[in-house]
Write a structure and sequence with these properties.
The complex is a heterodimer.
Chain A (H helix, E strand, L loop, with lengths): L2 E11 L2 E12 L3 E5 L6 H9 L4 E10 L2 E2 L5 H7 L1 E4 L11 H11 L9 H14 L17 H15 L3 E5 L7 H14 L5 E6 L3 H5 L4 E6 L2 E6 L1 H10 L2 H7 L10
Helix pairs in contact in A: 5-6
Chain B lengths: L10 H10 L4 H16 L36 H4 L10 E5 L2 E6 L2 H5 L3 E4 H7 L1 H7 L11 H9 L2 E7 L9 E7 L8 E7 L4 E10 L8 E9 L4 E9 L5 E10 L4 E8 L4 E10 L5 E10 L4 E10 L5 E10 L4 E10 L7 E10 L5 E10 L5 E9 L3 H8 L5 H17 L5 H15 L1
Parallel strand pairs in B: 1-5, 4-6, 5-7, 6-8, 7-9, 8-10, 9-11, 10-12, 11-13, 12-14, 13-15, 14-16, 15-17, 16-18, 17-19
Antiparallel strand pairs in B: 1-2, 3-4
Helix pairs in contact in B: 1-2, 2-7, 5-6, 8-9, 9-10
Classes of the chains: A alpha/beta, B alpha/beta.
Chain lengths: ~260, ~425
């Protein structure tokens, strides 16, 4: 079992504090969902976990199985078992999807123990078929000219090929039509199990109709303000966030996109 | 003002070389006249690079003798691996100034295709070579370096594809430079007559560390009406050369010209790649990738000039600069009066890998007609941080991520080259140069 422990995490961008003390523990074999209005720091949390250079952790800690994640470079975090499905995946011209994936898989292996080309292709073909992706996506340049839905599917393809211990999915559902959402959810559900934990960040309860979370957290003003089970998401869907604000005495503040 | 040239050869040397080489009289005369003009003409003035202190004229010897071979595997491995073995039926290898290996399929010969070294072509097809030698694309008297080139031609290739002949398999030329004393005054002519099609790929490869001679190279491509030519080149010349390389095409009506140039030389270089779209509805696509390193200074001009109506010209240039390398990328789209509905597009991007490297993308659109479309994009910068972050978030090290991004950045030309061996070599050269 692996565990990601986030303690009292404070994160700033350009000197402005966005996360103001986040506490969260995610184990493998668990799916967590973080919900909350726009601009409350959900994506900042995702970026801070992965180590985006723009996000400065001012205090607090992130540990994966007792190892200090904040000490690690971005690639070391990935190799330790973390994965972030990005909200806006980069497009990289001239690098094929397949070459990129093989580099990512081989980065986790010792020199001389690289995945064989045949085995890689077999696995790639199988996974792409599972995600109902066109075969030519393997030879297309990484995310270049991909539609929004194709990019999200491609993030899940990477997730399934790389098989991390703990994945953070940053708005994997945004901009997806219902068919694509079903496919993406199918991929995530396929990953569920002993060796895999997941933190899904979303605006919408709809995603949770396809992936039933074990735990739901609500984030506001840079903190997790409420946690519960799947029923919490349903109540949010039905009633919105106002009742939480009232319950906790949170003042409205201007929305900002972070 | 005439700059005095200190040349290792005299007018007499030029004449006697030409005679010994059994060249046709017209060419001896052309050489002599060019030699006289070279002394008088001014140097070219590549935009934004001052080359007045560059030495284009001194060299230890005009020609050197090298061994011929009977089989490709007798050549250095650097050459042998460029050729896709037996499946490559049409190959010319020139070793320094000596035609060292040549094979051409019976099928092409039967169709009337000529693919041979420039001097054999002059002897056997004198009229044909005379018709195209520096008459339509590049002129002898453009400047000192073209004249010097014409006077001192010491190698090259002649390709002639008759009307309606379509050659599927690429023709391959390899110019091996394995003698530090050698100078390369190579002249290449590719002629595709009406509705003909050909792909020609040349590679320059130095196996010596440092050159002492000159590389003054001219390639002329004549694309007939409705003809198609793809010209691929990978230049990997050693430092020490002062390289002047001029690759130019003239495209007829409905003709199509594609360039894929991987300019990887370690020498100081002036490279000129100009395509004249003379006939209506012609098109040109010019892709260039460059890696500069060390202290080298380079100037790359790519120009597509629209004369005919409905012509389309696309320029793509991607350069990577490291160490203290300096490069200028001039991209010129020029639409002449009367070339209505023409389209001139260009993209120049320079990636800087070190603080001291300098790269300058200089896009120019010169338009003398109203009803046209044109556009350009230019950027100079470092490796994109968000791309690095994305790749690293999958476990790829920073170094490997940069490598992938750079290879991707230079891929447009690599993917365009039709010969596996050349493709692989270019990839390896890029690997070696950016490391």
């Amino acid at each position: 079992m692996s565990t990601l422990v986030i303690k009292d995490l404070h994160v700033a961008i350009d000197g402005k504090e966005i996360l103001k003390g986040v506490n969260l523990t995610i184990n493998t074999n668990e799916v967590h969902a973080i919900m909350g209005p726009n601009g409350t720091g959900k994506s900042t949390l995702a970026s801070a976990i992965m180590g985006h250079p723009k996000y400065e952790v001012t205090s607090g800690s992130i540990e994966l199985d007792g190892e200090d994640v904040l000490e690690m470079e971005v690639d070391e975090r990935a190799k330790a078992g973390l994965f972030l499905a990005m909200q806006y995946p980069s497009e990289i011209n001239g690098v094929t999807n397949a070459d990129f994936l093989r580099s990512a898989i081989n980065a986790r292996r010792e020199e001389g123990d690289e995945i064989s080309l045949m085995k890689f292709i077999r696995e790639l073909d199988k996974t792409m078929a599972f995600l109902e992706m066109d075969e030519d996506m393997a030879q297309r340049y990484l995310n270049e000219g991909f539609s929004g839905g194709e990019k999200k599917r491609n993030e899940i393809l990477q997730l399934m090929m790389i098989k991390p211990k703990i994945a953070v999915l940053d708005e994997i559902d945004s901009g997806l039509d219902i068919d694509a959402l079903k496919v993406v959810s199918k991929g995530i559900n396929e990953m569920r199990g002993e060796g895999f934990g997941c933190l899904m960040i979303t605006h919408y309860q709809r995603l949770l109709n396809y992936i039933t979370p074990d735990k739901v957290h609500v984030m506001m003003q840079g903190k997790v303000v409420k946690s519960g089970g799947a029923e919490l998401a349903q109540r949010l869907e039905a009633e919105g966030y106002d009742w939480i604000k009232q319950e906790l005495g949170i003042e409205e503040e201007a929305e900002q996109d972070v | 003002m005439t700059v005095e040239m200190k040349l290792a050869v005299t007018a007499n040397d030029v004449r006697s070389f030409s005679e010994t080489n059994s060249e046709p009289a017209w060419f001896t005369t052309l050489r002599e006249s060019a030699f006289a003009q070279a002394a008088e003409l001014a140097m070219p003035k590549p935009d934004k690079t001052n080359i007045t202190k560059w030495d284009f004229t001194t060299f230890p010897s005009w020609t050197v003798e090298s061994d011929q071979v009977n089989a490709l595997n007798e050549l250095p491995a650097e050459v042998a691996t460029l050729v896709d073995g037996e499946s490559q039926h049409n190959v010319y290898v020139q070793r320094n100034n000596t035609p060292a290996f040549h094979k051409v399929s019976q099928e092409l010969t039967d169709k009337g295709v000529i693919f041979t070294d420039i001097f054999t072509a002059m002897r056997e097809h004198s009229d044909l070579v005379q018709k195209y030698f520096m008459t339509e694309a590049v002129k002898v008297d453009e400047h000192k370096l073209t004249a010097l080139h014409a006077a001192l031609v010491n190698g090259g290739v002649f390709v002639y594809v008759p009307r309606n002949v379509v050659i599927e398999e690429p023709l391959q030329a390899v110019f091996l430079h394995d003698n530090a004393e050698a100078s390369l005054f190579n002249h290449v002519i590719v002629v595709a007559e009406e509705s003909a099609a050909v792909t020609y790929v040349e590679t320059y490869v130095s196996t010596v560390e440092e050159a002492k001679g000159q590389a003054n190279i001219v390639a002329e491509v004549l694309v007939g009406d409705n003809a198609q030519v793809t010209f691929g080149a990978v230049d990997v010349l050693a430092k020490g050369f002062t390289t002047y390389v001029n690759r130019r095409a003239r495209v007829g009506r409905d003709g199509k010209m594609d360039w894929a140039l991987g300019l990887m030389s370690d020498s100081n270089t002036v490279s000129e790649n100009i395509t004249h779209l003379v006939g209506d509805n012609g098109s040109a696509d010019s892709k260039t990738v460059v890696v500069g390193r060390g202290e080298q200074k380079q100037n790359f001009t790519t120009e597509i000039r629209h004369w005919g109506k409905d012509t389309a010209g696309h320029i793509l240039k991607h350069g990577v600069m490291k160490d203290a390398a300096q490069s200028i990328f001039n991209g010129i789209g020029m639409i002449e009066k009367g070339a209505t509905r023409s389209d001139a597009q260009q993209e120049s991007r320079v990636l800087m890998l070190s603080e001291k490297a300098r790269g300058d993308a200089n896009p120019i659109l010169l338009i003398d007609e109203d009803d046209v479309t044109a556009g350009h994009a230019a950027s100079v910068g470092r490796v994109d941080e968000s791309q690095l972050y994305y790749l690293m978030s999958r476990g790829i090290s920073k170094q490997e991520a940069e490598r992938l991004i750079i290879h991707g950045f230079l891929a447009p030309v690599v993917t365009q080259l039709p010969i596996e061996g050349v493709k692989k070599q270019l990839t390896e050269v890029i690997e070696r140069k950016v490391r």
